[in-house]
């Protein structure tokens, strides 16, 4: 556990944090161009997002690293990707059909695009960073990231993420990420900014954004 940002306590999340943190994820991502594209109806979006982020939270606990703050107002879900990760495509399609119903095709498309353009170089993937909307712009998200960034620098590993709006893109640029080639979602979808925080180098710089060749997925 680490103290950052004027005594903000960052700790690993557990199943006991599920209720508050699923709510933080669903609320933090409820607005924005990606949310509007995935589910145009705000009422439907609230229902589907709760199911989606419930699945996301428990998946993070099982296969990744989930961090929160002492007051449960923020959450970060990281996945160590030290080698290319296989995807259980058929089971994931079934899960998304159950979670998103009529909106499943766009969720499937989004996840397939993210997977196809994911770097192969060893790294940690920041899948989600969410701060309670009533507590945003107070440095909480930056403090949550700084805690993990220190660990990555000690390990000599880079970080990768996908930013879905310009506000988040600017935040990550300030925190030492560089922007790589974008993903443009079809059917009038928004632009996704792929971002990379390189590993420290002996010269004092950081490794550059890796080359990525789109991968094909098949059932």
TrEMBL record:
Top-level division of the source organism's lineage: Bacteria
Protein name, as recorded: GNAT family N-acetyltransferase
Phylogenetic classification of the source organism: Bacteria, Bacillati, Actinomycetota, Actinomycetes, Micromonosporales
Species of the source: Micromonospora fiedleri
Occurrences of domain N-acetyltransferase (ranges): 64-200
PROSITE patterns the UniProt entry points to: GNAT
Pfam family, one: Acetyltransf_7
UniProt cross-references to SUPFAM superfamilies, sorted A to Z: Acyl-CoA N-acyltransferases (Nat)
């Amino acid at each position: 556990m680490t103290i950052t940002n004027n005594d903000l306590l960052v700790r690993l999340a557990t199943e006991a944090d599920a209720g508050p943190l699923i709510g933080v994820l669903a609320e933090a991502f409820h607005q924005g161009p990606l949310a509007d594209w995935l589910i145009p109806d705000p009422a439907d979006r609230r229902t589907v997002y709760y199911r989606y982020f419930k699945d996301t939270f428990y998946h993070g606990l099982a296969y990744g690293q989930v961090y929160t703050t002492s007051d449960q107002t923020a959450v970060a879900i990281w996945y160590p990707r030290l080698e290319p990760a296989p995807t259980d495509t058929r089971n994931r399609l079934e899960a998304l059909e159950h979670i998103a119903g009529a909106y499943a095709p766009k969720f499937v498309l989004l996840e397939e695009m993210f997977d196809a353009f994911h770097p192969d170089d060893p790294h940690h993937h920041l899948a989600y960073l969410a701060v309670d909307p009533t507590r945003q712009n107070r440095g909480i998200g930056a403090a949550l990231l700084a805690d993990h960034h220190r660990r990555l620098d000690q390990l000599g590993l880079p970080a990768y993420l996908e930013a879905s709006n310009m506000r988040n893109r600017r935040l990550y640029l300030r925190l030492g990420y560089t922007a790589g080639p974008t993903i443009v979602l079809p059917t009038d979808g928004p632009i996704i900014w792929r971002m990379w925080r390189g590993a420290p180098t002996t010269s004092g710089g950081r490794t550059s954004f890796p080359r990525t060749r789109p991968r094909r997925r098949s059932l």
